[in-house]
Amino acid sequence: MKEIVLENTEVSKGLVDYINSHSVTDIVLGASSRSALGRKYWTHDVPTMINKAAPEFCTVYVVSKGKQQSVRPAAKSLPSSAPARQSSSSSWFSFARSEQKIVESEKTGPEKGPSNVAIDNLHAQKHTSQSDGSVRFARISPRSVDMMAENLDFTQVGIKETPMNGSSSYSLDHEMESLKLELRQTLDMYNQACKEAIMANQAADELNRWKMEEAHKVEQARLAEEAALAMAETEKAKCRAAIEAAKKAQKMAEIEAQRRKYAELKVKREEEKKKRAMNVRSQNDLRYRKYTIEEIEAATNKFSTSQKIGEGGYGPVFKGKLDHTPVAIKVLSPDAAQGKKQFQQEVEVLSLIRHPNLVLLLGACPEYGCLVYELMNNGSLEDRLFRKGNTPSIPLEIRFKIAAEIATGLLFLHQAKPEPLVHRDLKPGNILLDKNYVCKISDVGLARLVPSSVADSVTQYHMTSAAGTFCYIDPEYQQTGRLETKSDIYSLGVMLLQIITARPPMGLTHHVERAIEKGKFADLLDPTVPNWPVEEALTFAKLSLKCAELRKKDRPDLGSVIVPELNKLKELGMSSMPSIGG
C-alpha cells in the first residue's frame, strides 16, 4: 500500500487535476456537513465544485449517512488516448474543508480493501497495514480537531476505480464509525473546555469589574472628601469676609448716625434762626394799615351789590375808596373753607414782600377778614381774554408783555427769602391788570412756604391735600401731594396757551398739540387779534407745552429758560407794534 499526498490551494481543484491526470471514471464524495454558519461564509462546498468541474468521462457520486444523495453520470466514455488505468486498484479519499493537503492511501491487489486518507493542519501520521484486509488511518492531531470543530466541517470523499468487496467495505464502515465516535468525543471535550474557559473568562471579567467598581468608589470617596474640604475652606473664607463686612457696616452705621445727629441739630438751629428772623421781620416790616369795619362798610356802601366787582373762593370783591384812593376790598365769606387761615396767610405773605408784578396790600380788617388792595382798572386777565362786558380784545404785543410779567412775578415768589413761596392757584382769574395792562399776581392766600431744598427739584414737600383750581393743578401734585416750585410751572403753561388762544383750559394742551402736528396751529389763535406773527406764536406755544408736561422733571426751569424766552418774545412783540398797527 502506498500513500499519495496531493498539495493544492483548493481541495476541489486538486481532486479535479488528479481525476484528469489518472483518468478516474468514478468518484464518490461524502456530502458536506457544513453548518449554516459555515455556509454563510463559503459560497460552494467540495461536492458542488466537483460536480461542476469534473471531466465528462467521470461519474460523481455524493453519499450522506450511508445513502446515495446524488449522482452526476458520465456524459461520454473515456478517450482512447487516455493513459491505461490499473484495473485492480481503488482509491479512497477523506478530507476536511480547512485543509490544503490531500493524503492518498492506495493498496494494490484484487482482494485488498480501500484505504482512507485524512487531512491535517500540521502533519499526518502514516500507519501501514500488517495483514490483508486491514486498513490504517492517518490520525488527526488536537489542532486538527480544533480546526474541524471550529469550521464544523467533516467531509469524506471516495474515488472508486474498481468495485469493492464486502469485507473491505465492512471494515471501512467500522473504522469510520470509530473515527466518528472519537471525533464526537473530542468535540464534546472541546465544547466542555470552551464552556469552562468561557465561565472562567466571565468570572475573571466579573472580578475585574468588581475591582474597577471598588477603585471607582474609592476615587469617588477621595474626590468627595477633597470637595468637602474645599467647601469647608470656602465657607470659612466667606464667614471671615462676612465678619469683616459686618464690622465695616457697623462702623459706617455709627459714622452715619453721628452725621445724621449733627445734620438734625444743624437743621433745628437753622429753623429756629429762620423763625426768629421771620418774627422780627413780621414785627418790624408790617406795612399794611388796619381798618375798622365801619370804614369798610362806608367804602363799599355797606357791601352794596352795585359795588361788587367779582367773586372768588375766598369771598366777594367790592370796589370802594379809602383815604381818597380807589381800592378793591375782598371780604371773607362766612362759609368759606379755611377762610381765616387763608386770610392770615395772605396778610403774612403780602405784608412781607413787594414786587411790581404782585398785587399791593394796602390794609386789612382782621376782625372781619377784609383785605384792602389797590384797584386794578382792567380787572382780571380772564375777563379780558373772554371780553367780559364786551370789552375790547387785548392787543398782540400786550399779550406777550403780560406773559413775561406773570413769569417774572412768579419767579420772585419762588426766590423769596428765607423760604421759596409756591402760589398753588395760578390762573387767569388771579392775574389782575391795571389801566396800563401791567399785570399783578393776586390771591396768594393758598401760597405755601416750602423748604429751600425743594427749589433744586430733588427734595419735595409733601402736602396732605392738594389745593388749586381744576385744569390748572399739577397732575403729580394732585396725585401724590408732593409740592415743589415746578408745580406752578404746569399752571403757567396752561395759562400761557390761553393767552394766545382765548380758549377754555379743558383739554387745551391736547388741542394745541394736534393742531401743530396737522399744520393747523394758526386756526387755534385768538381770531380777535389780526395779523398774528405765526412763527413767534408757534415758538410761544411750544414753550407753553413744555411747561405743561405731565412729569415735573420734563418741565423747563423758570429762571434760566422760561423768563428769558418770554422776555425775548416780549421784545419781538413790542418791536412789531408799528408794522402790525399799519
UniProtKB/TrEMBL annotation:
Transmembrane segments: none annotated. Signal peptide: none annotated. Its EC number is 2.3.2.27. It catalyses: S-ubiquitinyl-[E2 ubiquitin-conjugating enzyme]-L-cysteine + [acceptor protein]-L-lysine = [E2 ubiquitin-conjugating enzyme]-L-cysteine + N(6)-ubiquitinyl-[acceptor protein]-L-lysine. Residues 303-566 form the Protein kinase domain. It is an enzyme of class 2 (transferase). Keywords: ATP-binding, Coiled coil, Nucleotide-binding, Ubl conjugation pathway. GO terms for molecular function: ATP binding; protein kinase activity; ubiquitin protein ligase activity. Residues 229-275 form a coiled coil. InterPro entries: Kinase-like_dom_sf, Prot_kinase_dom, Ser-Thr/Tyr_kinase_cat_dom, Ser/Thr_kinase_AS, U-box_ubiquitin_ligases. It comes from the Eukaryota. This is RING-type E3 ubiquitin transferase. It comes from Anisodus tanguticus.
